[in-house]
TrEMBL record, chains A, B:
It catalyses: biotin + L-lysyl-[protein] + ATP = N(6)-biotinyl-L-lysyl-[protein] + AMP + diphosphate + H(+). Biotin binds at residues 89-91, 113, 184. Acts both as a biotin--[acetyl-CoA-carboxylase] ligase and a repressor. Keywords: ATP-binding, Biotin, DNA-binding, Ligase, Nucleotide-binding, Repressor, Transcription, Transcription regulation. The keyword Transcription regulation applies. Signal peptide: none annotated. NCBIfam families: birA_ligase (TIGR00121). The gene is birA. This is Bifunctional ligase/repressor BirA.
């Protein structure tokens, strides 16, 4: 009910009378008043004026389950959501929930991760209250070998979610980093559990540097935030919800063919270095190729100086611009 | 130290003097006496005779870490072992340990599983104290796509471990059940965790019906135990250790080529229905083929009535004898 009232307040441009809310939801004036009081306690600034009613002035800069649910436009993704103040890592929590039977689409988000992880065990800095740190559980009925493409679906969703919520164009650094002005604003860590060749569940972890003001010296040339790039604070709930909206839509397109047939073109449109020279780093080897974008399998097609085409899929390969990390 | 004394007692045919133990391990008489006392408290029957020393009469029918460690002949498998009275499921516990960083080879075993699982979420009956219910963590540096073969390595190890410990010949029902006299004595559930196409860890769960006296009516035609088939109680610690020994050896052979090149022949020698007609059940479809054994990839080669060869790898296929479950 609180969530419904919040949704109504968010939708309204001007004041909504208590009477109207009572009638709409079939509850008493006292009930409405109690929910409004609870929302205020959570940090929502709600103006109450006699004979006019209620008006939402500002949402708190904290993530709440009601706020997320009332802003979500998805059908199944994030419909069950666990919001935490602090957690070791949202991926670990999502995996724990999945092991305990959590349903397809279950979402975990936290203000703070005390041991957030990036790929290959690298640590991920998640400044409390300044990012979107979230993980969700998927239980797709797809072949195990196709599941790694979901990490590219996530990158695409983040790209579009950032555009919606912060009004800024990012680029995807294959396979699944999102860059703004050449620096990383988002990392994605997708993990899976399987009973041998049968998929059990997938956890997609997404960390977006939303409102981080400053980065440590040593990462400043590689990492940035939406705040740093736009000069404006982004509404984290809206960002989170837009990413989930796009993920759900793109996931359905992916599921049709279990590949990137329907998403390849859009993904390549956002791809950093598309048609340009890149440096492919494989262990100690490095070589220069031209990036031709991803194929239907989500593999990166590259052409070397002799015109030979290669399709890169290994997790051990990393891509750089020829002049450094991203350029 | 307790473990070393136990190993010494196990190795000795007759009495070993306290003096001998003191000298061998460089500890005091009091220390030896305290360890012997502790072992007795754990259920070991140790005869102590003045002027002769100690003799191990009987090991308790409980699994203990000392007992397992003193009987193990492996290099890395089971060298870290957690023995529990009861657990929800040894696979779940092993996964929890793995998530917390447990090393390659870490073993979990329990007297009882309160919610033991078989493949596809089926429940697995684990009678307290009457079976070998164990799971171990592997962190192999292999391709994700090759990891499903480890479940066949486990079946092979169980087959040979049973032969060693119970002196009885089993058969492997592809991919990973072990049958004795046509009934199932062992189930294997192998699970993996990956960061997309990079393997994180594998948990191999093995349940062996060792000393179960009676089965519920409804499974009696499909399930059996070593006790039921041989009429003799099997030493569970020895069984567990023999299975681990074979697994470690066969795992090293598997690792060389990341396939069954070196194990295929032995596996096929133990395969139920090798060269015979079998029923392949795929969802609602059933068809009769001749089994030609596994190939290097661990896939089952079958030939249909028109002479066409197929290689079966899907987890959705199940194999039956043409006259029922196993015959």
């Amino acid at each position: 009910m609180k969530e419904k009232i919040l949704r109504e307040l968010k939708a309204g441009e001007s004041y909504i009378s208590g009477q109207e809310l009572c009638q709409k939801f079939g509850v008493s004036r006292t009930a409405v008043w109690k929910h409004i009081k609870a929302l205020k306690e959570e940090g929502y600034v709600i103006d109450s004026v006699s004979n006019k009613g209620y008006k939402l002035v500002r949402c708190p800069d904290v993530l709440t389950a009601e706020d997320i649910k009332s802003s979500l436009s998805t059908t199944w993704l994030g419909r069950t959501v666990k919001v935490m103040k602090t957690v070791d890592s949202t991926n670990l929590e999502a995996k724990r929930l999945a092991e305990a039977g959590a349903l397809h689409g279950t979402l975990v988000t936290a203000e703070e991760q005390t041991s957030g992880k990036g790929r290959r065990g690298r640590s991920w800095i998640s400044v409390p209250g300044q990012g979107v740190w979230m993980s969700f559980v998927l239980r797709p009925d797809i072949e195990l070998e196709n599941s790694s493409m979901l990490t590219l679906v996530a990158a695409l969703a983040v790209e579009k979610g950032i555009k919606d919520a912060a009004g800024i164009d990012g680029r995807i650094k294959w396979p699944n980093d999102v860059l703004v002005n050449g620096k990383k604003v988002c990392g994605i860590l997708t993990e899976l559990s399987a009973q041998m060749d049968e998929l059990n569940y997938i956890v997609v972890g997404i960390g977006i540097n939303a409102n981080i003001g400053q980065f440590p010296e040593e990462v400043r040339d590689k990492a940035t935030s939406l705040l740093a790039e736009t000069g404006e604070t982004v509404d984290r709930t809206r960002l989170l919800c837009q990413v989930l909206k796009h993920f759900e839509q793109d996931y359905e397109l992916f599921k049709k063919t279990e590949d990137f047939s329907e998403l390849m073109e859009e993904y390549n449109g956002f791809l950093a270095h598309f048609g340009q020279e890149i440096k492919v780093v494989r262990g100690k080897d490095e070589y220069i190729c031209r990036s031709e974008g991803i194929n239907r399998r989500g593999e990166l097609r590259v052409v070397d100086s002799l015109g030979r085409t290669q399709e890169i899929f290994s997790g051990e390969v990393s891509i750089r611009g020829i002049h450094g990390y991203s350029v």
